[in-house]
Amino acid sequence: MNSKKELWVLLASFVIPIVLGAAFFYWNPTAFTGSTVNYGRFVNPIITTEEQDVVFVKDTAGGLQGLWTLAYATSQCDNACTKTLKDMNTVRILMNEDMRRIQRLLLINNTTGFQEPGVLIAKPSKTLNQQLSKFPANTLFLIDPLGNVMLYYNPQDLEIKRVIKDLKRLFKYSRIG
Question: Which fold, 41-173?
């Protein structure tokens, strides 16, 4: 008689947590949707880039493969552009030992005389420019080492600490770049 009671207690200890978890999930669906731990906004669907999508200026040699890229897309480089590029440099420096995993890119539609050490300057192809035009003007993008545009930040309310937290989290779990 005692063994039947023990069997039911053992069975209940396995079944009750599953039933309670399923009930919580289905009766409170807002608890698991809409919240993410990243501060940048996801590019949905992810924009994949090819080698011909980014045409580097003749004095600039580089590529999107192998390194994480902070890319600033703009039509002209003015004061806001230079401030964002300096913020990108600050982010890169504050990443400490991971700074070698990050490169900075200025995606500009027009020709520019802007030059700064460590900044790659390139012109986006028409298809890439069309895809990026869906986002606000002068947007900061994060491109993964495979060339996928995956996160974007609005540079007007750019907080360096939040970008660094996103990058550290990505670098912790990333096996590429």
Answer: Glutaredoxin (3.40.30)
Distance of alpha carbon 12 from alpha carbon 4, whole angstroms: 12
Domain boundaries, the chain: 2-32, 41-173
More confident of the two residues 68 and 112: 68
- Cβ neighbors of 69 (< 8 A, separation 6 or more) are 102, 103, 104, 105, 142, 143
Q: Which amino acid is at 88?
A: M
> What is the b/e burial string over 71-86, where b = at least 16 CB atoms within 10 angstroms of the residue's CB?
bbbbeebeeebeebbe
Distances (CA, A) of 154 to 63, 67, 94, 135, 137: 24, 22, 20, 9, 9
pTM of the model: 0.77
pLDDT in tens, 133-158: 999 888 999 999 999 999 999 878 88
> What is the per-residue burial (b if ≥16 Cβ within 10 Å, else e) of 55-64?
eebeeeebeb
Q: Which residues pair with 42 in a beta bridge?
A: 151
* Cα-based distances in Å from 136 to 141, 153, 154, 160: 11, 10, 8, 19
